[in-house]
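step: validate -> pass
step: tokenize input -> pass
step: predict -> running
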Amino acid sequence: MNISILVFGKNNFIATLPDQIRYPTAFSVEVIDNFNQAVSQIQIRPPDIILVQASLDGSMELCSWLKDQTKLAWIYCILFEDRPQQLTDRNMYGWQREFEMNATALNQGADAYIWHLIEEKTDHSLAELSANHGLILAQLTVGLRKAQKYQDLIRTNDMLSAIALADSLTELNNRRALDWDLPRQIKRARTQKTSLSLIILDVDHFKKVNDTHGHLVGDRILQVLSQRLRHNLRCQDTAFRYGGEEFVILLANTSDEEALVVARRLNRVISDEPFSLSSNKLTINITISLGTACLKAEDDDQGESLLYRADQCLLHAKTAGRNRVISSNYLSHVSHLKAVSS
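step: predict -> pass
step: emit ->
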């Protein structure tokens, strides 16, 4: 487990910290004394624990800012109270003032609040500072435990997300994953002003395969088909099992003409080589029909109209004899010719 600590403080504060922090071996430590730099660093590479020197300009603002960052909720923030006035008030008014200050610090975003002497060098203050080291290390242990639990939770959530978004038979992304990813890709394409295309394909006469050879053979056909698709797509392409024997492929940064080229290649890859099922020494010829469409300005943000156009192309490919590709540009051209001739 790689634990990182960010220290927001000056050299005089650093010098009073335990050796385990000043000369770390079990974790990485970075020191920053500027508020803007600290915020930037946290956003780029979030630490697991932050140690904050209260007397440094921007310390309370940093605690408050961190508290408002819901995506950084796991970071354990320890505020070290070294401001002379607060230390004086604590000595003058006793435990009641100390409790008030503790409550204020915790409300402002700190997870822990430690009274910390760094200016005076009396024997009493040095003894108190030494005793504080034990408290500091104990709070570090709490922060490390919290970071460990958070990282374990992230790994578990990643695993559950992968399971929820994967098709168990083909190991491709499932329809739920498409519903989540398609709007994201549409938004990115429009933001970056790039093209986005989509392919819908369907296995020809798949019901006949199931009726003739059984559903186990049909499942194996889908698995082999998925493997061929995966191995013949580009790095920017993403394949999904849409349902049954139907698949969707998102083609990032791809025009309608380029999508047509990809679809035709996939059509050849499937039809040119029979599917050999070694488990029962069966060889079956399989073909697919495909429809393609490219994102338009008038398409909705969820991608429903884009999917619909590609699906209409797929239907035309099947009614035209199957084992072929029909693009939305082709359908638009045909519709235009019919309108002109009429």
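step: describe -> The chain has a mean pLDDT of 87.
step: cleanup -> pass
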